[in-house]
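User: tokens in, sequence out, please.
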């Protein structure tokens, strides 16, 4: 039986490699540093205020005309495409980590949403969609009257 010197860092490295492999498979990264072609899904926040729903989507590198917003059967759909670099004039890429390609996000709106008055704005790479609530859905104060 041969004796080998125990190296705790080798064990840690092996665990780290396994975790990297597992998380890489989950998030679209394969083997070490290579990026697998996967869909680009921009992050979206959905908030609610007293009188509206506010949806914010991070769309860096896009212009308003690159984005299409539609609503059908209470489903708000945001779609578009982020193109790869048009031309790389000098040198070659050593790493490409940004995602490119088409994307689509669908958000189911509640029955209280006023689908006829949705507004969208685009500022600094963030798309903001405001969906007002219908008047009958907004909270209102009811006055209590004294009797007698």
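Assistant: Sequence out:
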């Amino acid at each position: 039986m041969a004796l080998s010197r125990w190296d705790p860092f080798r064990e840690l490295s092996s665990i780290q490699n396994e975790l990297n492999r597992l998380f890489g498979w989950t998030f679209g990264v394969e083997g070490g540093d290579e990026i697998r072609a996967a869909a680009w899904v921009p992050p979206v926040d959905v908030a609610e205020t007293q009188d509206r729903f506010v949806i914010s989507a991070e769309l860096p590198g896009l212009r308003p005309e690159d984005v299409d917003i539609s609503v059908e059967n209470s489903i708000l759909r945001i779609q578009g495409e982020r193109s790869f670099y048009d031309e790389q004039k000098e040198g070659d890429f050593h790493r490409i980590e940004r995602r490119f390609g088409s994307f689509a996000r669908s958000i189911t709106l509640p029955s209280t949403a006023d689908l006829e008055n949705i507004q969208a704005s685009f500022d600094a790479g963030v798309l903001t969609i405001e969906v007002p609530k219908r008047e009958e859905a907004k909270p209102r104060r009811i006055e209590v009257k004294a009797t007698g």
